[in-house]
From TrEMBL:
This is Cyclophilin-like fold protein. It comes from Clostridium frigoriphilum. It comes from the Bacteria. Residues 7-116 form the Cyclophilin-like domain.
Amino acid sequence: MKNTISMDINGTKVTATLVNNSSTEELFKMLKEGPLTIEMEDYASMEKVGSIGTNLSTNDKQTTTKAGDLILYLGDKFVIYYENNSWKFTRLGKINDVSQNELKKILGSGDATVTLSLD
């Protein structure tokens, strides 16, 4: 399975490396149909979260997140962390080559629009 995706976050392009699990396999199948745009809201000053419009299988494990971690929450929420958190999550992957400060700047302080694609 290919393990990188492209992400456009508020107009800034980054890449992410995905882990290998059933959740990411299902996400890849969705992205083969075309890009997925997610309207994300800031939550608790630590993450951006938005609905992917469908449920993916979950692989929840106790996880401590770091800035740039991509998480599936409750099967239908895509989450980008920019601060640490510890909870039972499904890890999807991590944004490549972006520091915590750079990520906070890219995400901005309010809502964010994120488009995932395979290109």
